[in-house]
Write a structure and sequence with these properties.
The chain is α/β, with parallel strands linked by helices. It folds into two domains: 12-30 and 274-373, Aspartate Aminotransferase, domain 1; 40-272, 3-Layer(aba) Sandwich (Aspartate Aminotransferase, domain 2), CATH 3.40.640.10. It has helices at 12-19, 40-50, 62-72, 85-95, 110-117, 137-154, 177-190, 243-252, 260-271, 273-295, 317-329, 355-373; strands spanning 27-28, 79-82, 100-105, 121-126, 160-165, 193-197, 219-224, 237-240, 300-302, 309-314, 332-333, 335-336, 347-351. Strands 2-8-7-6-5-3-4 form a seven-stranded mixed sheet, with helices on both faces. Strands 9-10-13-12 form a four-stranded antiparallel sheet, covered by helices on one side. Strands 1-11 form a two-stranded parallel sheet. It is globular. The relative contact order is 0.18. The model has no long low-confidence stretch (mean pLDDT 95). Bound molecules: pyridoxal-5'-phosphate. Residues 8, 84-86, 108, 165, 169, 197, 199, 224, 226, 232, 237 line the site of pyridoxal-5'-phosphate. Pyridoxal-5'-phosphate is lined by residues 8, 84-86, 108, 165, 169, 197, 199, 224, 226, 232, 237.
Length: 374
């Protein structure tokens, strides 16, 4: 069976080629990066690191792991750095010896793809439009209750995993640490894995499960430098979990998968506290503004968000297709959510960008939606 390549946002090179325009002239709302861009200190560290590329990179990213250990108050042995968090997501099914993955959707398609590529069975519990995509906690806990007995009987407890993205993409909704306590209790009782993807958690750091690691031996947390530090082209992410788990994941990865420039970027990024604080303050204000402006437009149902993007439902897939294609002709990319597994309603996702860009997006949307009324 051939498993199709996933569709992701950020396809600027393809659009630039199609329009015959340079990449820098496009405006990308489809991949959600920090609107403040890459910080000056990260750029400087990367330039410096390029001069040192005549050596192999440190295969264990030791300096970066030491800094992450300090950042999260956890042992270095509990951390593994990867070539983007997606490299680690790919390695997880084999590393954990999974037989079943339950995905809390609609969400990032690489969980399902990675499981299927490894021949692992999947199922899902999905957030629904009627509840404005609030995470489906009750349904998840119900499934976990049902898992308990058969899993014990078959002795297969350790091969099942729950995949949760928090805050979730594309919905923007989050699960609070308090609500996670119920999931953690159920997972601890059953003895399955809990994989939490915190790729967007830097935008709402108080909801991270890092402080809960010691309470859940089978908790594995994925983190990414891509979004908050706006370095998608560099590829840098990491995973945190029990040291035995970290060793199993590492065994699945090629040597030197994290290059020297990426390691230097990660260190500089973590140390740039001013940029981190400025980014959070900016996002809180600008996201509120953008949500307000979008809510004033016709035919959009705007979801609340804890991340650096917002999702809006539209009345039909025709509307979604029209918005996507008309914006593309203007060199603007937005994310059509129909390719997210578990997404039942037509919807679009927009990154929160700088104020001027966001204003431009709202105006362009208004024109397109007004035209469609006629
Ligand atoms: C939820 C989620 N997790 C992980 C990733 C991959 O991140 P990285 O660039 O670290 O591989 C993405 C990228 O879009 C994502 O949306």
């Amino acid at each position: 069976m051939v498993i199709q390549r996933a569709i992701h946002g950020g396809q600027v090179y393809q659009l630039a080629k199609r329009l015959g325009r340079p990449v820098e002239t496009l405006v990308d709302y489809s991949a959600s990066m920090n609107p403040l861009g890459t910080s000056a200190s990260v750029l400087k560290a990367m330039h410096h690191a390029v001069d040192e590329c005549q050596h192999y990179p440190d295969p264990d990213s030791e300096e970066l792991r030491a800094r992450l250990s300090q950042e999260h108050g956890i042992a270095e042995e509990a951390i593994l750095v990867g070539n983007g968090s997606v490299e680690i997501i790919r390695a997880l099914p084999k590393a954990l010896g999974l037989r079943h993955g339950l995905i809390v959707g609609p969400t990032f398609s690489e969980f399902e793809r990675s499981l299927r590529l490894a021949g692992v069975a999947t199922s899902s519990v999905d957030a629904v439009s009627a509840q404005r995509y609030a995470p489906p906690l009750e349904s998840l806990l119900d499934v976990l209750k049902k898992w308990k007995r058969p899993l014990r009987l078959k002795g297969a407890v350790s091969n099942y995993a729950v995949f949760v993205c928090n805050p979730n993409s594309p919905t923007g909704r989050h699960i609070s640490r308090r609500d996670f306590r119920h999931i953690i209790s159920a997972v601890n009782r059953i003895g399955c894995w809990l994989i939490v993807d915190e790729a967007f958690i830097d935008w709402c750091p108080s909801h991270s499960l890092m402080p809960d690691l010691s309470r859940c031996p089978r908790l594995v947390i994925l983190r990414s430098f891509t979004k908050f530090f706006s370095i998608p082209g560099i590829r840098l992410g990491y995973v945190v979990g029990a040291s035995s788990v970290i060793q199993s994941i590492q065994a699945q990865l090629p040597p030197w998968s994290v290059n020297h420039v990426a390691q230097a970027a990660g260190l500089a990024a973590l140390n740039d506290w001013r940029f981190r604080q400025r980014s959070l303050t900016f996002m809180q204000q600008e996201r509120t503004r953008l949500l307000r402006q979008l809510r004033a437009l016709p035919r959009l149902r705007v979801m609340t968000s804890q991340a650096n993007f917002v999702m809006v439902e539209v009345s039909s897939q025709v509307v979604a297709d029209t918005v996507v294609s008309r914006l593309q002709t203007q060199g603007v990319l937005v994310r059509d959510c129909q390719t997210f597994p578990g997404m039942m309603q037509p919807a679009l996702r927009f990154a929160v960008r700088l104020r001027r860009d966001n204003h431009g997006l709202v105006q362009a949307l208004k024109h397109i939606l007004d035209d469609m009324k006629m």
